Every structure is written in C-alpha cells, then in structure tokens.
UniProtKB/TrEMBL annotation, chain A:
Ranges where the DUF112 domain occurs: 19-441
PANTHER family from the UniProt entry: TRICARBOXYLIC TRANSPORT PROTEIN
The keyword Plastid is assigned to this record: no
Signal peptide as annotated in the record: none
Record-annotated membrane-spanning stretches: 6-24, 31-53, 59-81, 107-134, 146-162, 169-187, 199-219, 317-340, 360-380, 387-407, 413-429, 436-460, 472-493
Descriptive protein name: C4-dicarboxylate ABC transporter permease
UniProt cross-references to InterPro entries, sorted A to Z: DUF112_TM
Keywords: Membrane, Transmembrane, Transmembrane helix
UniProtKB/TrEMBL annotation, chain B:
Protein name per Swiss-Prot or TrEMBL: ABC transporter substrate-binding protein
Keywords per UniProt: Signal
Signal peptide: 1-26
PANTHER family listed in its UniProt record: BLR1237 PROTEIN, TRICARBOXYLATE-BINDING PROTEIN
Presence of the UniProt keyword Signal in the record: yes
Length: 501, 324
C-alpha cells in the first residue's frame, strides 16, 4: 500500500455521508448493544436493507460501526447490572461488576469503552498494515491448532475463577457437559436430549448466559443476602466520564499492548477467534500480574487487557473475510454478502485491483472506533442514572429484558425456559461459592474443542501424537501441557522441601 | 382491577409483538421472518440463502433474518425448520441431505416433513486439492489414492452428507474401496477448505463456488466436476467422465421450504416471489459473481426432483455402506 492510496482512501472516508452514517450507526449500535440479549449479529442483520441504498464504503462503515458499538455497549449492562453482552464479555463481567459494587461504576464503564476503542484502533492498524500476511498465517491453522487453542482457553478459567480451583474446575466441567447436549456433530446421533426436539440443537448459550448472570442476580436481589450497588453521588453535567482511565493506562500500559496484540492475532482465526481472545487475555493478565490476588475484586488490570483484546479481535476477524472470502462469524458472513452486492468481491484480487476501496473499508474501522469515545462518553453520563432508579422499577425491567433477549435469539419460547432454569442453577451454585463464568466458557468452547478433536483424530487415524506432528500445534501443545504440569510440580516441590509435620 | 386489566392488555400487546398470536387476521408477512440455514456461516448454502433472503426482504418489506442452525450434518437445522410452527414466520433452506437422513437411521427431517416452496440453486460438486499438491489432474490424484491407501484424507461436510457420498461414490465407481481415502467429518465446506489450506487434509469435495476464493488466491485448485456436462460458469473444469471415464453426477440442490402444512397464502406468495427473484438480472449477476448457478424449479417440479434424488441416492448410499 502506497501513501497515495492512503490519501485517496482517506478522501473517500472523510465524506460527510460516511461520517453521518457512522454516527447514526454508532448510536443505533449503542441502543441495541446496551439492551441485554439483543446481539450485534441481530443489529447487523436489521441494518442490511438500509445498506441497499448506500455506496459501498458507507454500507460497510455502517456495519462496522454498528457491531463495534453494539459489542462495546454490551459492557455497560455488564458493569451496571452484571448482564454480559457477548460470550466474550462474560470473561470480565464479574470484574466490572465488582468495581461497580465498590462505587466505581463510572470507572468500570469508562475503562470498558476507552480500552475497547483503543484496542479497536490497534486492530484496525494491524488490518491496514498486515492483512494479507495475517490472513496467510491464519490459513495455516488446522483443527490440531484450533484444538490446542480451545484447550488453552479452557485453562484460563482456572485463572479466571476464584481462589478455589476445584470449584472452578467443577463449573467448567458442568459447562462442557451442557455443551454436549444435542445432536453429535460427527454421527448426528442425539445426546442427552431425552426426546425433546428443542434440545436437538443444543442448549443455546445466550439464554443460558442471560439466565446465569442476570436472572440469578435478580434472584439474589430478592433474597435476604441482597447487596445493591451504591448509588453514585450527583455530579455536575460537565464532569468527566473518563476520569481515572488515563491513570489506569499509565499504571498498566503492558496490559493494553498485550491484550491488543493477542486480540488481533487470535481474532484473525476464522470461527473461534472472537470469543476466545478476551478469555485468554483475562487469564494471561492475571498470570502476569504483580497483584493476582486483586483479580475478581474490581481490579482495573484484567478489564483493560480483556476489553482491548475484545475489540482488537473484532477488527482482525475481518482479515480472513477480506483476504480469502472466509467469514469467521455471522457478522462477517453478512458483510461479505454486502461487499459482493456492491461489486467489491473479497479476495486477494481486491487488494490488487482496488486498493483504494479496500483501504477505505479498513479506515472505516478506525473511524468507527474513534466514534466510540465521544458516544461512549455521553452514554456513561446517561447510564449512571440507571443505578439511581429504584429497585422496584429496575428489577421488573431487567426481567423483561431477560425474557425478550432469550426469546429473540432463536425466536423460541423454549429458550426462555432455558434462561429461567439456568438462572436457578446459577443462584444455587453461587450460594455455594461455585463460580459462574467457567460454565459459560465451557459452554462456548465445548463444541469447538470437541469438533476439532474429532476432526484431528480422524486425520491422525486415532494417533494422539498427531497433536504434536505439526510445528505450531506442537508449540501450542507443549505450552498447554506446561501450564498444566508446572503448577503441579511446583506444589510437589514445596511439599517435599517442607518437612512433614 | 383497572390496573390488572391494563397490565393484561399490555402483556397481550407484548406477546402479540413477539408474535405467537395475532397473525391470522393480517396479510403475511406482517413481521420479521426467520430463515433457517442448516449449514455454517460462510458456506455455499449460507451465501445463497443470504442472497435470496435479501431479495425476499426487498419484495415483502419485512426483515428475513438468516439464522445458522448447524450441527449433526445439517440435521439440526432441517429438524428445526420441520418442527417450527407452520405460520410462515419460520422458513428455511433445505439441501439434498434431507433425502438422505432417513436412510442413515435419522428420522424427523425427510422431505415429507416440509412444505417445499421451490429450488433456486443446483451446483455440481467438484474435487479440490491444494494448489501445490503433487497431483495435477484427477487421474493423478486417483493414482495417489491407490498407491497410498488410508493416507490421503478427504472432507467437505459431515459423515454421510452429500459431499461424503459424492467422494465415496466416485471411488466406488472407480472400484476403489472408499476407505482408501477416509472421510473427515466437518461442519461444512468453509472449515474443510480451511483444513485443506492448512495442509491438514488433501481433498475437499465441494462445489467449485465454495472453493473459488481460495482458488483465486492461488491456494487451491479444482480437478474435476461431478456432472454430466461442463458448467457454463467453470468451462475449464473437466467433467468426471472426461477426466476419469466413469459416469457419476450426484446433483445437490438448495431450495426454500417451510414446515409441513404451511398456509396456502404463504406458499403462493413465496413461490411467486422466488420465481421472480430467480429471473431478476441483478440477482443472477450476484449469484454468478460468487460462482453459484441459478436453477429455479417451482414447488411441484422441485418436489419431483427431491423424491427422485431420494431414490437414486439411497441406492448409492447402500453401495458405499452409508445407509443402514
């Protein structure tokens, strides 16, 4: 890409039409994203008819801005009400909520928005500089590498969950077990469905997630053990929504860099990237932290790392889509359709034949993430009032959102039942100090793990050493084994050194 | 009491907008329609379904939301379509696998479970290998399979799906044991192409359209097309009889369907719209640009095609040991 291309692409992007579209799409994404259960995919799908009437660049800009804002805005109900917006944000929702319980709701939201935007900008930069390179690298990942990555993601739950690893492991296994419900991918045979047709497709995770976090929180609110986040003191309209964010960045600059880098690289892997990145980032943050004991009590470090990786991954998820026409998720699949319709057929040819347009598309990522900051600033101002709303009003409202959100994912009443049951289970689990986040992780990664395990086994003719037969897979495999084995050896060593009492 | 009535009215409105009641009086569609795709995002069924959904959306002025319900080799999605309420607000795209489930001992998604609305696409399956593979022609690939039984792995979809049957049937016609190039079950063609590019497997059996972007990128090449004649869209790809001297053309289809017992109004409207869409210049150009053919059949002809495919395929499945 030459400088001329960049300038002409900037010229395409900095048109009033594009700027207005990005602004409107961001506001729209904010509203969809901030309503628990309404997903970024849904927001994008509803946008498609409007893109018919737009030029290619504003059309893509609208999709990018909507998803970026919707996913970032999902952190607002996460911090305020403990309702995660996406499977990725479930990784750090407890941390954000803990900050809120300390009376720092505004800081929790500020961190989420600023570092999402910064991570997104980082991702856009990576996309601009190294899209073809990154895409080629991502094409080298087969089921063997995906298997190890999924396992690595699962291991982070040991780090994410509380100081009781055994309980964390239990929750994780519960999640994995739930993920096996439904038709088996390989043979098509039903498992644990008890003849219920609605279970053939498995237990969908959005209703489960809403139930386990939000509905369980409502149940706790009704019980005697209720604890309510403190109402923030009234501040003037001119107060700074982002107060304390800069200080947090100065304290943990590495968290931001690590999170963004991780997000941009894992995000480029089609299919699994987006959901995995935030979990691994959060786990890594705790592993490398100087104060790991503060995690889970409302600590900024993990929040910074996970939210920057979340949005960085969002940008790089477009890498395989733009370069090879391989979409990693529903949003990029929709966007590829729009690109084709506008005659911008994704693929390596696009990079040669129409670099200006391509660069312009990538620049809209940067633009959308820049818009996150002012809109997020205002959103936080408004969102703070949510905490001042009387409990009697907010509880039924959340309940309505829980029901609508669960229903809306697949348009089935059955999912509402799943949400309610999941909520009850989560309430009982938390009353007995079992963590919830690992359940969601197991549920999201279980199918990825299983599918890639089976595929790999079929390729390797059932030989387990096949998982170490490819260089990258071997590297990842050794890393995963080290993470499992080293703590065991270390604890054995300390036990041997210490005389038995 | 007044408050109770108001609450009742409010909840009635709420339920009404969610949509399980109240559609009987107005014209279909008065709210969003869900279009279920039984295959993963990014595959050919997904891409064509999204193209059709966009056209339907333009014609009916309501969103047609594409939802991917994957798993079980398309069975989950097919069953979901078949089991949804026949109110016209859940439609789906069914693929040739619907004719094969029952023979595999998987009930609940056979053609009788659907109201067939029309076919919009039928693309023959091709054999794709990595661009840097040592075999340049289908003949050389077959020699390689014979020389190293069990070494070369093939994928493209689930075990027992049409892609699998196409590959196993091809080997069967060539009098090679299908186990000489074992099948690796995947969720669809997109993950299989990823596996091919990553050098984990050697053969992907899928339509040339689904391999197109990686072929353009110089990562893959298509060796043959399992059809009786060359495709107008891919005139350079030899047919199976040209390349290997055997006849084998299992032609898949992609069609719109709903659960059995769909209201007459919906059937008429959607079928008419589909006929119109498949004649639309813009739609044809869009499908062509992505390498997909447009092959319309009305509900009646489509039903015949489906039933005939079932008869043909079940015997082919028995030949390669895929039917119970």
């Amino acid at each position: 890409m030459t400088f001329d291309v960049l300038i002409s692409a900037l010229w395409v992007v900095l048109q009033p039409q594009v700027l207005i579209v990005v602004l409107l799409a961001s506001v729209y994404g904010l509203f969809i994203g901030a309503i628990p259960g309404l997903s970024a995919t849904m927001a994008t799908a509803l946008l498609i008819p409007l893109t018919f009437y737009m030029d290619p660049v504003p059309a893509i800009a609208a999709i990018v801005a909507t998803t970026a804002m919707a996913i970032t805005a999902g952190d607002i109900p996460g911090a305020l009400l403990r309702i995660p917006g996406t499977p990725a944000s479930a990784a750090y929702v407890e941390e954000a909520y803990a900050l809120n319980m300390k009376g720092k709701a505004q800081l929790a939201m500020g961190l989420g928005i600023v570092f999402s935007a910064a991570g997104g900008l980082f991702g856009a930069l990576v996309l601009l500089v190294s899209a073809p390179l990154l895409a080629r690298a991502s094409l080298n990942f087969s089921s063997f590498e995906f298997f190890w990555l999924a396992l690595l993601g699962l291991l982070t739950s040991a780090l994410v969950s509380t100081n009781a690893p055994a309980r964390g492991l239990f929750s994780l296994c519960l999640g994995l077990l739930i993920s096996t419900v439904g038709l088996d991918v390989t043979s098509g045979q039903p498992r644990f469905t008890f003849g219920v047709i609605d279970l053939y497709g498995g237990v969908s995770f959005i209703p489960t997630m809403i139930g386990m976090f939000a509905f369980a929180e409502l149940l706790r609110g009704l019980s005697s053990a209720a604890s309510v986040p403190p109402v923030p003191a009234k501040e003037s309209v001119f107060s700074n929504s982002f107060a304390g964010v800069w200080g947090a960045f100065r304290r943990y600059p590495w968290s931001f860099l690590r999170g963004s880098t991780l997000g941009s690289s894992i995000g480029a892997l089609p299919g699994v990237g987006g959901d995995l990145a935030a979990w691994i980032a959060y786990g890594m943050s705790r592993r490398f932290s100087k104060t790991p004991e503060k995690f889970g009590t409302g600590h900024e470090e993990g929040l910074i790392e996970a939210s920057s990786s979340n949005n960085a991954g969002l940008s790089s998820a477009w890498v395989p889509a733009l370069v090879f026409g391989i979409p990693g998720d529903a949003v990029t699949a929709i966007a590829i359709g729009v690109l084709f319709m506008k005659g911008l057929n994704p693929g390596p040819k696009l990079f040669v034949e129409n670099p200006t347009m391509l660069t312009a598309v990538i620049l809209t990522f940067a633009l959308a993430n820049l818009f996150l900051i002012p809109i997020g600033f205002l959103a936080i101002k408004g969102a703070r009032y949510v905490l001042a709303v009387p409990r009697g009003l907010i509880v039924p409202t959340i309940l309505v959102f829980c029901v609508v959100g669960s229903f809306a994912i697949n348009n089935t009443v059955f999912d509402i039942a799943i949400m309610l049951v999941a909520g009850l289970v989560a309430y009982l689990m938390e009353a007995n100090r079992f963590p919830i986040a690992p359940v969601i992780l197991g549920l999201v990664l279980g199918p990825v793990l299983e599918r890639n395990f089976i595929m790999s086994m079929q390729i390797a003719d059932g030989n387990l050493l096949g998982f170490f037969s490819r260089p990258v897979a071997a590297g990842l495999g050794i890393l995963v084994c080290a993470i499992i084995v080293i703590p065991i050896l270390r604890s054995l060593a300390t036990r041997l050194r210490r005389p038995l009492s | 009491m007044k408050a109770f009535k108001a609450a009742l009215a409010a909840s009635a409105i709420f339920v009404g907008t969610l949509g399980s009641v109240g559609h009987a009086f107005a014209e279909w569609p008065e709210r969003a329609v869900t279009v279920i795709v039984p295959w993963s995002a990014g595959g050919g069924t997904d891409a064509t379904a999204r193209a059709v959904a966009q056209e339907l959306e333009e014609r009916f002025g309501q969103p047609f939301n594409v939802v991917n319900r994957t798993g079980g080799g398309g069975l989950v999605g097919h069953i979901t379509i078949a089991n949804s309420g026949p109110d016209g607000y859940t439609l789906g795209v069914i693929t040739i696998e619907t004719t094969m489930f029952e023979a595999q001992g998987l009930p609940g998604a056979s053609p009788e479970a659907f109201t067939l609305l029309g076919r919009f696409n039928a693309d023959a399956i091709g054999i794709n290998v990595r661009a840097d593979a040592p075999y340049g022609t289908a003949k050389e690939l077959v020699e390689a399979v014979k020389a190293n039984p069990g070494q070369l792995k093939a994928s493209g979809a689930n075990r027992g799906g049409l892609s699998h049957l196409a590959w196993a049937g091809l080997l069967n016609r060539l009098e090679i044991d299908p186990q000489a190039a074992p099948w690796v079950a995947s969720d669809g063609s997109a993950p299989a192409m990823q596996q091919l590019a990553a050098n984990a497997i050697e053969v992907v059996s899928t339509s040339p359209a689904e391999a197109q972007s990686l072929v353009d990128a110089g990562e893959a090449k298509t060796l043959l097309l399992m059809a009786d004649e060359r495709s107008a869209l891919y005139p350079d790809i030899p047919t199976v009889s040209e390349a290997l001297g055997v006849a084998w053309s299992p032609l898949p289809f992609r069609g719109l369907a709903g659960p059995a017992g769909l209201p007459e109004e919906v059937v008429t409207k959607v079928s008419a719209a589909l006929a119109e869409i498949t004649k639309d210049e813009e739609f044809i150009a869009l499908m062509k640009s992505r390498g997909f053919s447009v092959a319309y059949q009305d509900a009646e002809t489509f039903t015949k095609t489906v039933m005939r495919s079932r008869d043909d395929l079940v015997s082919a499945m028995q030949a390669v040991g895929l039917a119970k």
